[in-house]
Amino acid sequence: SEHIRHIEEVCALLHEANFKLNVDKCEIARTEILFLGHVIQADTIKPDPDNIRGLTETHEPTSVEEAFRFVKAAEYYRKFIPKFSTIA
């Protein structure tokens, strides 16, 4: 299949560059992966629910410092928050 061909190409390129894969850590033919705090599927990327739980379940900031910390934490996911720059 095309997927297997792509895997073979990637493995060949990594081998040429002297990269070694840890087979125990490799996940092949998955429909969804978790990467850098994002859930990646065939045609979507969304924040990992475990990572944003701290943002969604937090109490309302009661000081400027708390509000600043919240905005800085949320900034990593700004591409998923419509009008983030207006809100923040």
Give the termini distance in whole angstroms: 46 Å
The coarse overall form would be: elongated
Q: What is the total domain count?
A: 1
Q: Strand tally, please?
A: 3
- Helices and strands, in order, run as HEEEHHH
Strand order of the largest sheet: 1-2-3
Could you name the ranges where pLDDT drops below 50 across 5 or more consecutive residues? Answer: none
Helix content: 40-55%
> Mean pLDDT score, rounded?
90
Number of helices: 4
Structural class from helices and strands? alpha+beta
Could you give a short account of the major beta sheet? Answer: 3 strands, antiparallel
What is the radius of gyration? 19 Å
Share of β-strand residues: 5-15%
Q: What tags apply to this protein structure?
A:
88 residues, 3-stranded antiparallel β-sheet, alpha+beta
Explained architecture:
This protein has 88 residues and is an alpha+beta fold. The chain has one domain (2-87). It has four helices and three strands, in the order αβββααα. A three-stranded antiparallel beta sheet has the order 1-2-3. Strand 1 and strand 2 form a beta hairpin. It is elongated, with a radius of gyration of 19 Å. The model has no long low-confidence stretch (mean pLDDT 90).
